Structure to design on (376 residues):
């Protein structure tokens, strides 16, 4: 049931191309479509996905340079006090630390729903000091993964205020994307099997494992791997490029860089890849399956584990280089019709499990619980 009209303000540092940002866009758009007032507050200045937001959504860009940058902070406080905000839907831990500081200082009193997308919980379960100090001010904690929710409870968030809402996306948007002919754009031979990994190039994404796995394939010359994503860790990106050169894979692996047209790129691919050592979602698997792609992926996060349990093939253990190489070679050797049939296995599942419209009642309930909690 859709609740009475509320004003939800999504708060995030920047609206770049990551999974958390894609989740924000799809939740905000769905909320606006349901007739609610929605504002997206970008606390810094990255507005790359701004055009993807529904035209009814207001955009507030603070442009802060530091956590408590005085002028942008004062502007935000004035704006919240004058705009009848019902709930702050806060994404990412850096944005949460900013909001908690304002609540602890009694500068704002608006209920906070914290949407925790933290992707490396399995290798870094530490609890920041600021989280311990401000956890009472989190009116509703929402983890995208059961292990995140248990982490929050262990960190002192009351169990009655901690729930899990799995990642979901606007499948209509994904399936309506315009096909981008990457083969023509990058002069990829038509006889090569085209595999795409969509991920920022950083250590937890396991790019080095993927490179090593490709090198172990009997016929890696039949495969073209495209790495689509930004490079926030230049040193690690340089290591990966050096490894590609050392293993003689320059013609098999290409670093494409960040792209804003990923759904269209996937329409021309043959395989979707995920080599991460740890994840909370990962949303990219939903994008692969929406495009009908077979996958070769490490079993990480709630989506990866759910798909493996449902019988979707192509999963291997994290850091299993040999297993990843075998699984990739198996899909490469399939006829194109057999690859499409394998992709259809997963595509049939996503409408039931990861459609944003199916997730919205849980979000409206979270907003209502946050608003009903007595102010600490």
């Amino acid at each position: 049931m859709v609740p009475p009209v509320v004003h939800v303000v999504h708060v995030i540092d920047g609206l770049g191309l990551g999974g958390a940002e894609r989740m924000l866009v799809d939740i905000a758009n769905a909320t606006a479509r349901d007739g609610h007032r929605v504002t997206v507050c970008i606390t810094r200045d990255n507005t790359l996905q701004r055009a993807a937001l529904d035209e009814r959504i207001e955009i507030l860009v603070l442009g802060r340079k530091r956590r408590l940058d005085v002028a942008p902070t004062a502007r935000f406080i004035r704006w919240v006090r004058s705009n009848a905000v019902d709930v702050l839907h806060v994404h990412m831990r850096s944005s949460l630390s900013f909001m908690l500081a304002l609540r602890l200082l009694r500068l704002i009193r608006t209920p906070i729903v914290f949407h925790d997308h933290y992707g490396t919980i399995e290798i870094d379960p530490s609890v920041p000091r600021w989280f311990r100090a401000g956890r009472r001010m989190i009116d509703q904690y929402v983890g995208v993964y059961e292990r995140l929710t248990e982490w929050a409870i262990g960190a002192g968030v009351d169990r009655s205020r901690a729930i899990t809402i799995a990642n979901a996306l606007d499948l209509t948007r994904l399936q309506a994307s315009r096909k981008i002919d990457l083969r023509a754009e990058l002069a990829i031979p038509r006889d090569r099997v085209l595999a795409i990994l969509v991920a920022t190039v950083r250590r937890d994404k396991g790019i080095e494992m993927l490179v090593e796995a490709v090198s172990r394939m009997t016929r890696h010359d039949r495969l073209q791997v495209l790495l689509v994503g930004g490079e926030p860790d230049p040193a690690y990106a340089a290591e990966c490029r050096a490894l590609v050169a050392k293993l003689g894979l320059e013609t098999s692996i290409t670093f494409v860089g960040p792209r804003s047209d990923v759904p269209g790129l996937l329409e021309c691919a043959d395989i979707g890849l995920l080599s991460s050592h740890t994840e909370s979602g990962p949303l990219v698997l939903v994008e692969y399956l929406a495009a009908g792609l077979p996958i070769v992926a490490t079993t990480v996060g709630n989506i990866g584990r759910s798909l493996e349990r449902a019988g979707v093939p192509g999963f291997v253990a994290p850091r299993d280089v040999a297993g990843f190489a075998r699984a990739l070679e198996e899909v490469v050797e399939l006829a194109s019709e057999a690859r499409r049939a394998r992709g259809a296995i997963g595509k049939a599942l996503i409408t039931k499990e990861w459609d944003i419209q199916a997730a919205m009642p849980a979000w409206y309930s979270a907003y209502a619980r946050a608003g009903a909690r007595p102010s600490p």
